[in-house]
Amino acid sequence: MLNLGAKLLAAGLVSKEQIEKSKQDEIAKQQAKKARIEAGKARQEARAAAPEKKNPHSPRGPRVAHASPRSAPVSTAASSERRDNRPAPTIDFDLKLREKHLKTLKSLSKTHQYEVIRRWVERNRFDKGTPTEMNEDTERYFFQKVDGQVTWLTLPRAAHNAVTNGKAAILSFMSSQGISHCAIAKEIAEDVAEVFPYWLRVLNGNVKAGLVLKAKETAPVEETQESAPKIL
C-alpha cells in the first residue's frame, strides 16, 4: 500500500524534493531527540557520582536550631498528630552549639536571618499543625503584640502549659505572609531575641519579653511589619 507521501506525489500535491526534505527533517528531529535523552542520562549519572558539596553561603543557615537534623526537638511532641495532655518535651540544648548557631545567625543578612529563623520555627514549633478552632485538646493563650494589641494562639494543652510554666515561649517570626507567632522552646526564642528583641512576646521569668512600643516610639521595621519583605 502506498504511503501518504506517495499518495500526495501521485496526486500532484507535492514534489519529490518536498518529500525528500520532509524525510531528512524527520531524521534530524529523531537524532536531536536521541541526543537530548543521552545528554540527560549523562547529567544524571554525573550528579549521582559527584560528592555532595556544602555551600557555606547558603541562605538556609544552620540546619536546625541547636540540634542535628535527626534530633530536631519536638519532632513528635509538637506535631499535628499529638494533641493530648501529656507534658511538653524537655529539650537539652548544648551551650556551645547554641553559641555557634547564634554567631552564624548574627553574621547573616536580614533576608537570610528571616529564612534561618523561619526554618527553626518550622522544625521546632510546639503548635505545628494545631487547628485554629477550639476543641477539647486545645486552649487559647492570649498575649500582646508589639503594638500593644491583644491577640492569641490556639495551642495544644501541653504547649499551653509549657508557655505558662516558662518552659516555652511565644515568639514572633517572619513567615512568608509577614509577621506571625508560634510557641517554641525558650532557648530558641531567647537566641532569636538576641537579634530581634521585639520578637520575644512571652517568656515567663524573662524580663526582656513582651516589649511594647510606647507612644511616638518606633521599633525596627523588620520586627513589626505585617507583610513579608521582598526577597531579592
Shape: elongated
Share in β-strands: 5-15%
Structural class, by secondary structure, is alpha+beta
Query: In angstroms, what separates the terminal alpha carbons?
Result: 63 Å
Radius of gyration: 29 Å
Strand numbers in spatial order across the main sheet: 4-3-5
Secondary structure tally, helices: 6
Q: Helix fraction?
A: 25-40%
In the predicted model, the low-confidence regions spanning at least 5 consecutive residues are 56-90, 226-232
**Beta strand count:** 5
Notes on the structure:
- The longest helix has 34 residues, at 16-49.
- The model is unreliable at 56-90 and 226-232 (pLDDT under 50).
- It is built from 6 helices and 5 strands; from the N terminus they run ααααββαββαβ.
- It has a domain at 69-223.
- By secondary structure, it is α+β, with helices and mostly antiparallel strands.
- The strands form 2 sheets. A 3-stranded antiparallel sheet has the order 4-3-5. A two-stranded antiparallel ribbon has the order 1-2.
Short summary:
With 232 residues, the protein is an alpha+beta fold.
